[in-house]
Input
Amino acid sequence: MSDATVLHCPACGAPAAPEDTVCRYCEAPLATVACPKCFGLAFKGAKNCPHCGAVLVEAAPAQDGQACPGCKRPMQLRELGGYKLEICGGCASVWIDRATFEAFCHDQEKQAIVVEALPKMDAAPINALNQGYRPCPDCKKLMNRVNFAQISGVILDTCKEHGTFFDPDELRRLVAFLQGGGMDRARSRQVEALKAEENRLKDAARDLATGTPDAGSSWSGGGTLGQTLGSAVEQGLTRFLFDRFLG
Output
């Protein structure tokens, strides 16, 4: 082993091999970690990488969080790809708060990184449709069950105020939908639906105009009825933009 690659015990500074689990001089326990810059091995607790000198920042330990809405075991706070998620150590389900989820849906560069870092489960994924409605971990109210973006086929439990719960494999399926242009398709479908509704309302207004409309209900000249119809379409678009991630 060359001097450039010699590892040293973080407790006493004595030389040690990467495969050593206990320092032969002070008997301190040894465990290796990978340098985030050069990926070389270093002992956990070392301040700098022995290969490139980069500062080694130890990852924050997982913290016990709220009970998993699925299996009721404690969830653990993890940071994956810069996003803080709560992951169940029992069933590998994931809880993401609302603000984090909306940011994640826009961040195509990090989506694949996050799902690749999720724990792998050998068991078959849970079918959410076979489960009863789950309580939100924050407010304890029963969450709504939605088909994400209405066309994804990924059925999620969501609390609009606090966050979204993903059964095992659902976050991976959601990312596949996002990466495949699913949101563009969802927006196009919603715009077409709103245009169809606008045409239906215009037809209804014309039918009304041929009769004896009430005062102030004339379609021509941008009267009250026309303003009402335009407002209805605008409100529909606003609702879609507000709820575009949660069904």
In short: Helices lie at 98-106, 108-117, 170-179, 182-209, 224-242. Residues 114 and 204 are 49 Å apart (CA to CA). Residues 1-58 form one domain. Residues 182-209 form the longest helix (28 residues).
